What does this fold into?
Amino acid sequence: MTFEFDEDMAVTPLGDHVWAAEISPGWNIGTIPNGGYLMALALSAVESAVAHPDPLTATTHFLGRVSSGEPATLEVEVLREGRTLSTACARLTQGGRERLRMLATYGDLEASEGPTLITAEPPSISPPEECIRNDVAQATMEIQKRFDLRLEPSVAGGAAGQPIGRPEMGGWIRFLDGRDPDLKSLALFADAFPPTVLNLERFGWVPTIELTIHFRAKPTPGWLLAWFASRFLIESHIEEDGEIWDSEGNLVALSRQLSRILPPSSH
Amino acid sequence: MTFEFDEDMAVTPLGDHVWAAEISPGWNIGTIPNGGYLMALALSAVESAVAHPDPLTATTHFLGRVSSGEPATLEVEVLREGRTLSTACARLTQGGRERLRMLATYGDLEASEGPTLITAEPPSISPPEECIRNDVAQATMEIQKRFDLRLEPSVAGGAAGQPIGRPEMGGWIRFLDGRDPDLKSLALFADAFPPTVLNLERFGWVPTIELTIHFRAKPTPGWLLAWFASRFLIESHIEEDGEIWDSEGNLVALSRQLSRILPPSSH
It folds into this structure.
């Protein structure tokens, strides 16, 4: 069986460290491809170029709007091929113009060893069957048709136009077509929930300036629990900190993005 | 008056978007230049190349050891020159080998406007005069001779070989020679405290894989309050989350790094 995410992650070699990709409209928010999808696509190119199997940390700066349904070119420059770590830089261009730049370091999580000490627990939220499907988003946003996404009731208000006054968001997520989560897909899941600012006020658009993800463990199959919170909205700039936990309660990713809230008129 | 930090931030144009720098031994930890200092140096090159004045977010991947007391070359590629944002990529090389790569987006914090909502407060710690000078570090580490750094007593144990069992660290910091903090220096301050893992166990070295800093506001003169905590030490990989607050209680920077603990024998 082929899953939608894998189809839309396909990259075709064009030459030395250069790949062609088609930007699927399947991960659009409105008419704009989701940033997490684009980041996962860039990781697809990088994983073909480096010797280590697992992303450990990746940062993407979003430079300009990507057009969905159109081809794109991905170029990878390998900066380091070490014994335990590889680092690469990737750029995505459309029509000759660069739209995003990513820096990523890869390693081998299976080969990692050493001390473990975890002082945090997964957030205590309602089980998936008591969480809220975002029906409006599912009817109107392509990307939401590909997820089974359930919002924790205490923070779901903002997604229905009823901000709760706290910049938090979270719940459960999995692919609707049954694909299991893997490391690369965590880039997508880290950017798939409604933004925390929806629980503060009306806004036009919240373009991401930069998104960084730490990939900490391979997710087990099943639901992912994702939780996002912001603490500092300062003159329209806001960070959003995310945690993703797998079905066995393991922390699998930490994310942080810096975004800018644009007023409703600029949508 | 010339301050040490400014002297050691000097970059000399070598050509189009290429600068020469001397890696000062003044910011060494042992024999190795501090990563925050190197990141600030890379920002010095980028600020000469972009149209906007203030770093907003920057991520550095550390590729190999930098030799102090030796020359280095900084090359900057400008990826975007927009109306409100500029993005650039910088690389630092020594002897023709790349040692770090940075991605940074610049804007204009003075020109930022829009909503502000802050849901966090500075951590409640002892005032500087009740905090603890790290005399051993000041005697043995070049970098610590350039700071007035005071550790909050409740977390200072780890820096004196008496781990408290919680991966936290923090206190007050300012330049010893009286230089006021600015945005660029926050990169240095974000990496200047003893690592949180010192409060967990003995280790050999904690090399930083990647360091990301969000620059959120220009610091006022005086002390900075910095606080660092880790939640997930997983098979030797650990994140360290930092907050830096200025003397008026404004959050000025958020930092996060991913590091790897190496055993004592590998020091």
Remarks:
- The helical segments of chain A are 4-7, 35-49, 135-140, 183-189.
- Chain A has a mean pLDDT of 94.
- Chain A has one domain: 4-109+127-266.
